[in-house]
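Render this sequence as a predicted structure.
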Amino acid sequence: MNKVYPDAKSALDGLVFDGMTLMAGGFGLCGIPENSIAALHELGVKDLTVISNNCGVDGFGLGILLDAKQIKKMVSSYVGENKEFERQYLEGELELEFNPQGTLAERIRAGGAGIPGFFTKTGVGTLIAEGKEHREFDGETYIMETGLKADVSIVKAWKADPQGNLIFRKTARNFNPMMATAGKVTIAEVEEIVELGSLDPDEIHTPGIFVQRLVQGSFEKRIEQRTIRQREDA
């Protein structure tokens, strides 16, 4: 089975449809599947439910889909870098299912592991807990959270072999590996595809069994907030 596709648009062929649920990896602008996001924009698929830690920034990352009104609902943890997100949400144009960051990560991991729900103390006594089942364990109150799954997961890795075994680099490991397990189909875009057998098995973060389609892409790698110190006068 050939998993390698020439570009992100061809990798998405036959998978996307209006109203689908999409997982998109990355943390801020680090480790985001830029090529797949651009292809989704070009394909014009709409009414998306997107599960992602955040929604990019204005005009980049998932912000491209947001600007084009292709996203109906976000399941997220951090949304503070996108003014258009704020505008759409406050004006009732965008649905938001807000999660504590650790809860979001565990919901995705649970979905990929086939766990339909779990109990956590995070969020007890806050708006997050409203409408959720409460249960006591050892005298402490917990709320139930459900696992998350997606029709398609798009992730970004550093290296892959032709079978889809993936190595992520540094911060890109925050959400990408767990999302790769939670999609019915996972598309991984990578910086480099190496020969089969050249990856050290002990260094593989995501086994190829979780990856159905693979794309070697080019990446802009923007800095979300660039902060530098002033040079001292000579």
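Summary. The chain has a mean pLDDT of 94. Residues 1 and 163 are 9 Å apart (CA to CA).
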